[in-house]
Design brief:
This protein has 150 residues and is α+β, with helices and mostly antiparallel strands. The protein has a domain at 4-107: Gcn5-related N-acetyltransferase (GNAT) (Aminopeptidase, 3-Layer(aba) Sandwich). 27% of the residues lie in helices and 35% in strands. Strands 1-2-3-4-5-7-6 form a 7-stranded mixed beta sheet, with helices on both faces. The protein is globular, with a radius of gyration of 14 Å.
Length: 150
């Protein structure tokens, strides 16, 4: 699969890029997962965004990289989402490798935190994220806090 990976700060996104990443997040989180929540929480404006495009230029995966102090004292990765048509092809593992590498380069070695949907614990575990033991409901979905261990 021919994919193009790029990270941009919010201020550098075009209107179309921001529209496309929000549309993907809404398709997956709101429609597919049937989760009504306020996606636009103001944190996008202070964050970096991974854009993964297919060969046609469509955004098929995205993630948000939050600087230390925005959501947690440490750097955080969130809004990890992959278009249903490209799942199961290793795109998610490529995405995580890309955002971890970016976060470590951008913020130095700072612990990285994720608020993971609990059923994805093993997926994130393959990328050296370990549970902190904190489990909670977020928008009606069981979540677990995890930290990256180098």
């Amino acid at each position: 699969m021919n994919l193009n990976w790029q990270v941009k700060h919010y201020r550098d996104l075009t209107l179309n890029e921001f529209h496309d990443l929000i549309a993907l997040r809404m398709r997956v989180f709101v429609v597919e997962q049937d989760c009504a929540y306020l996606d636009l929480d103001g944190k996008d404006k202070k964050s970096y965004h991974l854009l993964c495009r297919d060969g046609k230029g469509n955004v098929v995966a995205t993630a948000r990289i939050l600087p230390p102090g925005l959501s947690y004292p440490d750097c955080a990765i969130g809004r990890v989402v992959i278009e249903s048509e490209v799942r199961g092809n290793g795109v998610g593992h490529e995405l995580m490798s890309f955002v971890i590498k970016f976060a470590l380069q951008e913020f130095g070695y700072s612990p990285i935190v994720i608020s993971a949907q609990k059923h994805l614990k093993n997926y994130y575990g393959k990328h050296n994220f370990l549970s902190t033991g904190k489990e909670y409901l977020e928008d009606g979905i069981p979540h677990i806090e995890m930290r990256y261990k180098k």
